[in-house]
Design a protein that fits this description.
Radius of gyration: 27 Å
CATH class of the largest domain: Mainly Alpha
Helix content: 40-55%
Number of strands: 5
Strand content: under 5%
Structural class: mainly alpha
Length: 666
């Protein structure tokens, strides 16, 4: 009797839990559907640090056109992000960072804030404690040089001639990552003209620890004589010698290189929401246009300013800036979450989404062709609204995962786009079996030693998270496990597993992101998930679960892996961890149950989830993003994944009970 009561109690608990999950899914679906744009897409804000607003204030002063009202709002935004110690960080909850802090200090000083203001005094103290201006990266120093606040002779040269180096040379222009190319071409133009415009009496002398004129500001050489870094530093000194000839119009290649750089930049402004559709390249290209003599009323200048303005969110008292827009990425993830959570494939909202995604396919042979000359029909999807030169593999894989789950107005058109996208994506597999984001085999580490490579993004290496997402797609599309590309990808993942069982996450924070995606990708092939190397990954995920049932991890893991799995619980990272655990098939495992309980418990009444932490990665250790859509899309997908697991278990139990009845009847 007691056993029957206990079993009944368990069944009642399971039914109650199932009902709470169903309600959470329904609330989430309703919320996301209410956020859909009439054209069919979703777009969450990309929330970043204070540097973009700081850069724009500095630019307006360089340009000589300051809107006092806009500047007031920018100052308010910057001050709202100042830390208690006086500095500014580059991700939520992180410590003060040197570039963000000095850029903010400069913006406030340009805006007229007295250096004796307590907030400025605290910022100054923090900046000096981190080494001051000499510790800033190359791109930050170049922006200071534009205002006469840092000597050009100590800014690493970015020679225009790099664009002339052909593929025959081991280190050439297209061995750099796509985003580095887009930033460096306009910077090379700026570096040639050096259009210095000092802002009156404003200087940053107080942020040079040993005084502006009392130390060598050049980048230091390694103590060992023969190193790659030292080689490039000597090359940089030779470039400076060549720059003297260029300034005196006797450089044999400079005119040609400048013309080529201008042509390259102008071509890539077409079919794009600004150069590369990302803020740094867009701002650099605007300055470069002005350096080249384009007047303020020139259509290209007007358009460049308009595209930058579109990135702003201006309110009555504040202005903040996004680094770019993410409609394709956000829409693809939401479409997968809605479809997996039970929204019919022919639902009007999903049909509209499918049509919109199809319209965003890029049928143009962009810059990817230089590293990937495969004879494949051009396809792919970009991250942003318009960026035809730079479709990326990760977005394309996510779009294909969405398209396979939803119907469109024209099924034949969808099927053709799907096939093109799949064929295109497969050609990007790199030599060691993995996939990168934009280019193929963009991995020549020597480029990380050039003096202007301190933005930590010169390369586009293969990574576990993108590779695993592609494997997930291939598994769903019934690629055989013995397929050569699948085998190479599996070996890549095995080779890149960390000692503790986790995987590094390049495009999401961090080891939770990488580990979840690998497990989900492998599960799509129905492989035995109870192999020791995979169980080790499960053990790691469970080892970093928090007392509240959730998971969290901060960007400091990119600085030191000792911080793995540490950070306040977040809905997005909890969703990733839950989905990783669900690949092992045990819906009633304690860690899974606690994770699901966390997601249900913290959901807002309107179906959204609260999240402040930064869980997206731009350039590790340099630039991070908070995808505002993550807090709502990934939890829904996790709840849907859990419900599917329950459904499979119930079906299995019902099937076993039916078979037992048949045996008993016979």
């Amino acid at each position: 009797m007691d056993r029957q009561k206990g079993r009944l109690s368990i069944l009642q608990w399971a039914a109650s839990e199932r009902l709470s999950v169903e309600r959470a899914i329904q609330r989430s679906q309703e919320y996301l559907l209410s956020q859909q744009h009439p054209d069919g897409y979703w777009l969450g804000e990309l929330i970043v640090d204070s540097t973009l607003v700081s850069d724009m204030i500095a630019y307006h002063h360089w340009n000589g056109k300051v809107d006092p009202e806009w500047q007031r709002k920018g100052v308010n935004h910057i001050l709202s992000l100042q830390l208690p110690d006086g500095g500014w960080n580059n991700y939520y909850g992180g410590p003060a960072e040197i570039n963000a802090t000095i850029k903010a200090y400069l913006a406030l000083k340009l805006a007229g804030m007295p250096v004796t203001d307590p907030r400025m005094l605290k910022a100054r103290e923090v900046a000096l404690s981190m080494g001051g201006v000499p510790r800033m990266n190359t791109f930050s120093k170049l922006y200071l040089a534009l205002l006469g606040l840092f000597p050009w002779k100590y800014v690493p040269t970015i020679p225009c001639e790099v664009i002339l180096i052909g593929k025959w040379f081991h280190v050439n222009f297209y061995e750099m990552s796509s985003w580095s190319r887009s930033m460096l071409v306009p910077l090379a133009i700026i570096n040639h003209f050096k259009p210095t415009r000092p802002p009156g009496a404003v200087n940053l002398n107080e942020l040079f620890p040993e005084g502006y004129h009392e130390r060598d500001l050049a980048l230091p050489f390694d103590p060992q004589w023969f190193t790659k870094r030292n080689f490039f530093l000597w090359i940089d000194r030779l470039n400076r010698f060549a720059e003297w000839f260029a300034q005196n119009k006797v450089h044999p290649f400079r005119t040609r290189a400048l013309r080529k750089a201008e042509q390259w930049m102008l071509e890539r402004l077409e079919g794009s929401d600004g150069l590369a559709a990302i803020f740094p390249a867009m701002l650099n290209s605007l300055i470069a246009l002005k350096c080249l003599g384009y007047r303020d009323d020139h259509p290209l200048v007007i358009r460049a300013e308009r595209e930058l303005k579109r990135l702003e969110h201006e309110t009555e008292d504040s202005v903040r800036i996004e680094p770019c827009f993410s409609p394709v990425w956000d829409t693809a993830i939401v479409s997968v979450a809605l479809a997996e959570s039970g929204l019919p494939a022919d639902h009007p909202a999903l049909r509209k989404t499918g049509d919109w995604l199809i319209s965003k396919e890029i049928r143009f042979r962009g810059d990817w062709q230089y590293k990937n000359p495969a004879q494949v029909e051009p396809s792919g999807w970009a991250f942003e609204f318009e960026n035809k030169w730079n479709p990326d593999v990760d977005d394309s894989a996510m779009v294909l995962l969405g398209l396979r789950k939803i119907q469109t107005t024209n099924p034949a058109e969808r099927d053709a786009a799907f096939k093109r996208g799949m064929d295109w994506m497969l050609t990007f597999q790199c030599k060691d079996g993995g996939w990168g984001a934009f280019d193929k085999d963009c991995t020549k580490n020597i480029l990380e030693k050039v003096p202007f490579a301190d933005h930590n993004a010169m390369l586009d290496p293969e990574c576990a998270d993108i590779t695993a997402r592609i494997l997930e797609l291939l598994g769903y599309e019934n690629f055989p496990l013995q397929h050569p590309q699948v085998q190479k990808a599996l070996q890549f993942l095995r080779d890149h597993q960390e000692e503790d069982g986790s995987w590094y996450g390049r495009w999401g924070v961090n080891y939770i992101y990488g580990t979840w995606q690998v497990l989900r990708g492998l599960r799509a092939f129905n492989i035995d998930m109870h192999q020791p190397w995979l169980l080790k990954a499960r053990e790691w995920i469970e080892s970093v679960q928090h007392e509240d049932g959730g998971w969290g991890e901060r960007c400091n893991t990119y600085d030191d892996p000792v911080f793995k799995g540490q950070g306040p619980s977040t809905p997005s990272q909890t969703a990733w961890a839950v989905m990783g655990l669900c690949t092992f098939g045990d819906a009633y495992r304690s860690s899974v149950q606690r994770g699901i309980d966390y997601l249900v418990r913290v959901q807002n009444p309107d179906g959204s989830w609260p999240e402040l932490e930064t869980t997206g990665t731009g350039f590790p250790r340099v630039f991070y993003l908070k995808y505002d859509m993550y807090r709502n899309s990934w939890p829904l997908l996790a709840l849907a994944t859990y419900r599917q697991l329950l459904d499979r278990r119930d079906a299995s139990v019902d099937g076993a009970a039916h078979r037992l009845k048949e045996v008993a009847r016979k």
